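Lab notebook page, bench 4
Experiment: in silico fold of construct C2
Operator: M.H.
Input chain length: 475 residues
Purpose: comparison with the prior construct
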Amino acid sequence: MQLRLKLVLLSGVPIVVALLLMGATMQQQTYKLVREEQALVQQAFLHSKEAELKHYVELARNTLMRIAEGPGEVGVRKEAALATLTRMQFGDNGYFFVYDQHGQLLIDPKMLPMQGVDFCDPNDPASADSAQRILATARRGGGVVRYSWSKPSSQSVVPKLAYVMTVPGWNWVIGTGIYLDDVQGALQAIETGARTNIEATRQRLYAIAAVCVVLIGLGGVVLNLKDHRVSSDKLRRLARRVVRSQEDERVRVARELHDGVVQVLASSKFLLETAQLQLADPVAATPAAPRQALDQGLARLGSALVEIRRVSHGLRPALLDDLGLEPALALLAQQVQESGAFSVGLVRQGVPGELPAEHGTVLFRIAQEALQNCRNHAQASRVELVLHGTRRGVGLQVIDDGQGFDMRGVSGDGTRGIGLRNMRERAESLGGTLSIDSGRHGTRLAAWLPLPQATGLAPAPARELHPIAIAQPAP
């Protein structure tokens, strides 16, 4: 899986999960709030309706008491009181009912101005239980009674809340009630509105999540394309540099072979051919001439061997394979110093044991690249190579007293620092690290490579440095 895709997933998935959890939490808490609101609304509504019903019943009872205290016969007054109650109504389903002291209904439903009214008749088995509850509550001093009864406007059985009390003197039980299906409808409307709001909010959250994920994906794609373009440019420049380096190396080897080895071999051939001709005609030549020509030819062949060794060492030093990293670094330092660019010193801290071949190659190439940078850019007069090792790894430091460079600027510029990236990639290929500290007083490059468990190092005493003497260049 590509790094950019991992970053997109690591940034997008938590947002989606967080928004889903937020939506679920919001839904749960909102439903809980709705239920609490319903309970509060229902309680407040019922309390208000109970107080309202009590006021209605008290108003009706006071009206009956005034009629009871008026002039005339008792029977006439009672008929007048019942006639007054039949005319008293509120709303579409509000009416009064009256029982006598024996529990018998005193108002005929047909006398009411509204249709479909049915009273709780104690003599009717279907309503006897509700009637007995009403009478018992009234005899205890009055209060609220809950039961289910037929609603006149819809002729459906719904919960009903009634309030009853007794009328002094006549011992009547008077009461009225309201039907609670309207309350249930209001509560259901509250719940429906809450569910609608929750669903709309959840859809908005999901839309926000989708937009965020799309934006993150687009950002990842843009960054990926940008990095891909930058990486492609770097790869093209690196490929051009590799090709150019190969061509430069071939030109250098060809030039050194032509100007050095080939010339020496040609002169050696000429001298050997001269000696051959002199030996073929001993009369024309002096006795010492063939020997002199042979000695000169052999000397020229020795010079050719030295040139061949120098060219081959530039490609890959044989000492690195035969004797190890330290002699190869010593020879590299000596060659750079003999070129007259700057003086080079090699310091050994700890004695590395047998290093794996790839470790020695990586450190040698890092040293080569670092010395090349010192020659081309640092304008240094002194460079020090510090080779140190422990039982866990081996390190190399290249310290110069040059002018230094801006690490941040080089790292941010894709056209510079290819050599530094090559060194870092070489170190990281073996699980190592490369750190660079550069300033006005010089640059310190430190490479560290961990060793396999089987590779042992014999460390020297702590902080003990063993310099390797290298001849100073001739003035």
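Observations: The radius of gyration is 55 Å. The longest strand covers residues 157-167.
Next step: discuss at group meeting.
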